[in-house]
Amino acid sequence: MPPTSTETPDAGQRRATLATAFERSGRSLHTGRHANVRVSPAPPGHGIVFRRTLKGARTADVPALWTLRESQPLCTAIRSPEGVLVRTVEHLMASLSAHAVDDALVEIDAEELPIFDGSATPWCAAILAAGRIERPAPRPCIRVLRAVEVRDGRRSLRIEPADHLQISASLALAHFGEMHWSGAITPESFDADLAPSRSFGRLKWALPAKIYGFVTRKPFLRGANLSTTAGIVGGRIIGGMKVPDEPVRHRILDLVGDLALAGHPILGRLTAAHTGHELNHALVARLMNEAGAWEVV
């Protein structure tokens, strides 16, 4: 059997997949519907591909690639050229990326992945239980060669050359002050520092947003409650924070998942201020579209 590994994702490693399949199920954040997910091993070069079950037992494959990303409120979504949508993929993508799983088939019987408690810990636990195996194929990485930056008012995101994926981020919320986290993204740091952080939102905006979704018949926060998100009231999170400065850590979790849509691990140092999904995807698109800003190693 090929060796197992949980080393830091890096150039020079072999491509890896899961040692065995795992299944998870739960309610989704925006549609509010129940979803069943099976994540299975896949051959080298397969990448991360979502296979959605449609009516009539038909299936459609949606590769997890930045070119297929579609803007959706408060989540990361991808849509196949045939029009099949899969949404809220960022937590699973971040977990697979942090654990250096390059190839996997994700089968889902709904439009949206489960949100669980709003964190990535359930995905990480499932990946660790399934195990990881390396294959003979080499593992390509995207090495950043020069700085690339995107800005939107006070929001900014910059990537520079580095030997590993490193992130330094800040976020300021009213009544909380400025929050920070910095570090290299490894399986250990991701599981301990980032995965437990939950999706968050202010309760005073939650009810109007849910009403808007029902009135417009759009799938927006229908599954949001205090079991699936960290609810903010004033300067506190109801029930307390799972980890220090939890909101900024969750923004980094999302960033790791959004970067994974590049298709290969990224070797670079990121500096983020008040970033979110739209800015994350803008950076990936700008980086990938700038000739000479990166190379595959």
UniProtKB/TrEMBL annotation:
<dbReference type="InterPro" id="IPR004463">
    <property type="entry name" value="UDP-acyl_GlcNac_deAcase"/>
</dbReference>
<feature type="binding site">
    <location>
        <position position="250"/>
    </location>
    <ligand>
        <name>Zn(2+)</name>
    </ligand>
</feature>
<comment type="similarity">
    <text>Belongs to the LpxC family.</text>
</comment>
<keyword id="KW-0444">Lipid biosynthesis</keyword>
<comment type="pathway">
    <text>Glycolipid biosynthesis; lipid IV(A) biosynthesis; lipid IV(A) from (3R)-3-hydroxytetradecanoyl-[acyl-carrier-protein] and UDP-N-acetyl-alpha-D-glucosamine: step 2/6.</text>
</comment>
<feature type="active site" description="Proton donor">
    <location>
        <position position="277"/>
    </location>
</feature>
<protein>
    <recommendedName>
        <fullName>UDP-3-O-acyl-N-acetylglucosamine deacetylase</fullName>
        <ecNumber>3.5.1.108</ecNumber>
    </recommendedName>
</protein>
<comment type="function">
    <text>Catalyzes the hydrolysis of UDP-3-O-myristoyl-N-acetylglucosamine to form UDP-3-O-myristoylglucosamine and acetate, the committed step in lipid A biosynthesis.</text>
</comment>
<feature type="binding site">
    <location>
        <position position="254"/>
    </location>
    <ligand>
        <name>Zn(2+)</name>
    </ligand>
</feature>
<dbReference type="Pfam" id="PF03331">
    <property type="entry name" value="LpxC"/>
</dbReference>
<dbReference type="InterPro" id="IPR020568">
    <property type="entry name" value="Ribosomal_Su5_D2-typ_SF"/>
</dbReference>
<dbReference type="InterPro" id="IPR015870">
    <property type="entry name" value="UDP-acyl_N-AcGlcN_deAcase_N"/>
</dbReference>
<dbReference type="InterPro" id="IPR011334">
    <property type="entry name" value="UDP-acyl_GlcNac_deAcase_C"/>
</dbReference>
<keyword id="KW-0862">Zinc</keyword>
<keyword id="KW-0479">Metal-binding</keyword>
<feature type="binding site">
    <location>
        <position position="91"/>
    </location>
    <ligand>
        <name>Zn(2+)</name>
    </ligand>
</feature>
<keyword id="KW-0441">Lipid A biosynthesis</keyword>
<keyword id="KW-0378">Hydrolase</keyword>
<keyword id="KW-0443">Lipid metabolism</keyword>
